[in-house]
Amino acid sequence: MSSFKELGVSRWLCETLSGVKITRPTNIQAGTIPEILKGKNCIGGAKTGSGKTIAFAAPMLSKWAEDPCGIYGVILTPTRELAMQIAEQFSAMGSNVNLKTALIIGGQSMIEQSNNLKNNPDFVIATPGRLAHIIREHPDDVDGLKRLKFVVLDEADRLLTSSFTEHLGTCFEAFPDSSKRQTLLFTATVTDAVRSLKDKSDDVFIHELDKIDDVVIPERLSLSYILTPFLVKEAILHNLLTTDEFKESTAMIFVNRSETCELIRRILKALDVRVTALHSEMPQSERTNSLHRFRAGAARILVSTDLGGRGLDIPSVELVVNYDIPRDPDDFIHRVGRTARAGRKGSAISFVTPNDLDRILAIEDRTGRKMSEYEKVTDNAVIKDSLKATFAAKVDARMDMDKENFGERKQKLREKEMQRNGEVVKQGKITKHKKPKKSGKK
């Protein structure tokens, strides 16, 4: 297929896409749009940046324009940032046809969002947790969900994990039966959990460009490691980022925990590095501003948990640092995929502590590549240029985070969730409600 018109996309949408210089369908779009327009359910697998959003949005908008009644479709995605990005793309594509969208995510007014759902927008873009909360707390405001025509799971492999099971269950209970709607799953990684859904229905097709077992790290991406004693990780990071090789480079630093992310951000900022961060403890406005700063070049370093590992429209960076080694080798692949894009070169450097050896071996086995040791950060340079200043900045950052009770908000939300699930929180301990034992006497 050479054009969106030949794929069956509505004329008005073809003109809108052409207006923003999108004229030729990508492989994932050409492979999925015609089948979705025929009414089939879909599992689409392709790497980040391949055009998955238009692959599900174009056929949905084309069908919506034929009969725009009530809430037509819901798009569920695992993070707020992805939801916001998708909402922006829907708004842009529907700018000439008065398309109404509702963004349902945490960190914003739930009352306002509930009212937006009550007004039956055309499309709802949501994170499962917030939508499930509104369904439970304001059931009268979500009647429109019972008549929708499409449900999309974006980054489906992440949504189909235990972390989202309960929330997804609540959401799907509010949707029509599967026989009365189309279900579209799109993901960069078609896992067994995603693939198994095809076995449950004959009316599902899979279009997979990059099979999980065929993923290869490109040769232009340099993979290396630094053996890192735990107590001097921050000093080694600072030294790496200020070497002649990387002192001007845009970089993403991946960590496994929000607390680590915030600590690294504060240390680097104190050492005059233009840095910003992305983690779940940040208010939504700060998360949004942080991404804008990085995209605009106001910050050359983005410290991130796996919130920034995939899906987001982040420009290709020159360096990826795995400050913490991910537990899942596929998360490593998504992280390092942020560099060496569009034919450019890139570097990915992993900090390896003695506890990480098994994870590194699993990653090397998964990628089929051996990492080489990065030798340009030396003990003498770390001691001379970074150790003392980094240690002082770390002490100050820790003290400030303690004063601000960093992590308290997350703990309160967790306790509230536990209490709703019938668990009791006493002095920091969580226990189940105990049912009274039945007496043996009649």
UniProtKB/TrEMBL annotation:
One of its GO terms (cellular component) is small-subunit processome. Residues 403-420 have a biased composition (Basic and acidic residues). GO terms for molecular function: ATP binding; ATP hydrolysis activity; RNA binding; RNA helicase activity. The keyword Nucleus applies. SUPFAM superfamilies: P-loop containing nucleoside triphosphate hydrolases. Residues 235-383 form the Helicase C-terminal domain. Belongs to the DEAD box helicase family. This is RNA helicase. It comes from Pichia membranifaciens NRRL Y-2026.
